[in-house]
Amino acid sequence: MAFSGGVDSTFLLKVCVDVLGRENVLAFIGLSPTCPEREIAEAKSLSGLIGVDCVTAETSEMEDPRFIENNTTRCYFCKTHLFVKAREIAEQRGFIHVAEGSNVDDINDFRPGRKACSEQGVKSPLLEAGLTKGEIRELSETLALPTHDKPSFACLSSRVPYGTAIDATTLKRIERSEDFIQSLGIRQVRVRCYGNVARIEVLDKDFDAVMANRDKITEVLNQYGFLYVTLDLKGYRTGSMNTPSE
User: Fold this and answer.
1) DSSP letter at 148?
2) Which of 30, 82, 29, 21 is nearest to 52 (CA)?
3) pLDDT at position 244 over 60
4) 190 pairs with which residues across the strands?
5) Where along the chain do its domains lie?
6) Whose CA is closest to 34, among 87, 78, 64?
7) What is the pLDDT of residues 176-207, one digit of tens each?
8) Average pLDDT over residues 202-224
9) CB burial readout 3-42, b (16+ within 10 A) else e
10) What band does 126 get if pLDDT is binned at 50, 70 and 90?
């Protein structure tokens, strides 16, 4: 299965192993500049915790000009590259099905990647079972999964406005900026990138922490290439970079 190490895919991986047996399950982690190194490392660790074999491979969306141009269907091209690689590895290893972790709540969001699931024949068991994000979190806690309260995460390309070309350098400075802010104890953070302007989104409860560390945050993000560093007073929310929800 395509494994990100998030709430949904971790729960799905655990259930697959419990029901099918670890010998009948393989976790596939796609390697890409759109995914932070911390997320990849955590996914590897979680697959080991669950006790299932894990394989990694680079995906090629950064070589696709349709993805790079960053229009509203960006996610479709990204997911297509991910699932094509997952299908390739599954066939090499003798697996019949590829699965991923979409849930019922995802239906209400703007998700071009769902089309890629359909085209590549990828299964979405949590969606088929009618499970919501909240239910998955509750079940994850029952199973003692450390991801039960993990903050939501979207790929780093979602920090770049539609129409602005995506490049590895921009993605890396977003990743490093978010890593630094998280190192201050702020778990849920987005650094939205507008050229040399960084717009920081955190939960309302973390505003004080940002302000208390504003000098350090400004200094570090300046070093990463942001000339101006701002705090969004509306706080963290999905879909704030572009009109469709992400």
Assistant:
1) T
2) 21
3) no
4) 201
5) 7-142, 156-231
6) 78
7) 999 999 999 999 999 999 999 999 999 999 99
8) 98
9) bbbbbbbbbbbbbbbeeeeeeebbbbbbebbbbbeebbeb
10) very high
- The residue assigned the tokens 């973390």 is 206
Fold category of 7-142 in CATH: Rossmann fold (3.40.50)
Q: Which long-range contacts (CB under 8 A, 24 or more apart) does 56-64 make?
A: 56/28, 56/29, 56/30, 56/31, 57/28, 57/30, 57/31, 57/85, 57/89, 58/30, 58/31, 58/32, 59/30, 59/31, 59/32, 59/85, 60/85, 61/32, 61/34, 62/32, 62/33, 62/34, 62/166, 62/168
> Per CATH, which fold does 156-231 belong to?
Alpha-Beta Plaits (3.30.70)
pLDDT in tens, 40-69: 999 999 999 999 999 999 999 999 999 999
Amino acid, res. 184: L
The Cα–Cα gap between 90 and 67 comes to 24
